[in-house]
Design a protein that fits this description.
single chain; two-stranded antiparallel ribbon
Length: about 160
């Protein structure tokens, strides 16, 4: 599991991910300088550290390097969420609480992501007319995530 990026590491990786191509220290430096005062050697050190940690690969170009992301920002975010989720003593309750914090737009994105992850065969089974979308348990059976303290509202609100 990756350790969360520091503030400056995240600022550098944001550019590497956004540009989606091999970048030089100078390119990152010039873009960062639009927001803050920062030295070339600082950006070079951050990119070297990111290389040592496995976030970027680098290829020599003359006396400098070009750096390229090893994975996507989405993969990084997913790994952080997975790590946080796996730390819970009740993962299902943690998911329910997380879903309760989501905006409607985020819930729609989640629904789309679940459909994509399930594939076409499972999506057809879930979306059959007359069946509730999230009917994972039978009538009268309590879902596993429900806890007695929040039986009225599984989000805990």
């Amino acid at each position: 599991m990756p350790r969360p990026l520091g503030e400056l590491e995240d600022a550098v990786m944001t550019r590497v991910w956004k540009w989606n191509r091999p970048v030089t220290v100078r390119e990152v430096l010039e873009d960062l300088q639009q927001e803050r005062s920062i030295a070339y050697t600082t950006v070079m050190t951050v990119l070297d550290n990111l290389h040592q940690k496995g976030w970027v690969r680098r290829e020599a170009e003359g006396r400098a390097y070009r750096y390229e992301a090893v994975s996507t920002r989405a993969a990084y975010a997913a790994a952080l969420m997975n790590e946080a989720w796996s730390q819970s003593d009740n993962p299902a309750a943690a998911l329910v609480a997380f879903f309760g914090m989501m905006s409607e737009e985020q819930r729609l994105a989640l629904r789309d992501a679940v459909r994509i992850a399930q594939g076409p065969e499972q999506a057809e089974q879930v979306e059959q007319p007359g069946q509730p979308e999230a009917a994972e348990h039978t009538a009268g059976e309590k879902p596993a995530y429900e806890n007695p303290a929040s039986a009225e509202d599984p989000t805990g609100r």
